[in-house]
Fold:
Amino acid sequence: MTASPPDWPGLGGKMQGDRHVMPVRIYFEDTDFSGVVYHGAYVRFFERGRSEFLRQSGVGHADLHEDPAGMAFVVRRMTIAFDRAAKIDDVLAVETWMDEMKGATMRLGQRISRAGETVSTADVTAAVIGRDGRPRRIPEVLRRAFGGPGR
Structure:
């Protein structure tokens, strides 16, 4: 299992039940000329949330890559809704949870909020692939890490 360094214990957020919650502060680089978060920045925030969800479930990207089978997760589909604008210095919470697992794919739900108010949501379908780029069935050890078979 890959974990946060001991001197940065909250770096990757935390699990709250079956959801992972990670804070993100908005910096100038995240905004566009109008001072609000550029829509593409949300994709990065959602990606970080999924990566930390994996890590805190006991499965880091580096662990998957180093596995003899050389597995990786790839995004197959992502639907994003933008409900409110976030601005510089806002602190947002990125929530990630598992909705469903099938053979080689999983569907995750994500929500970015500010003080409990939804800013953006995403529905993400990810697939497991091997080094050869072909889909692979999600291994049982990953199914257990994400909450059980089939979910």
User: Anything to note?
Assistant: The helical segments are 39-56, 61-66, 140-145. The CA atoms of residues 5 and 11 lie 8 Å apart. The mean pLDDT is 88.
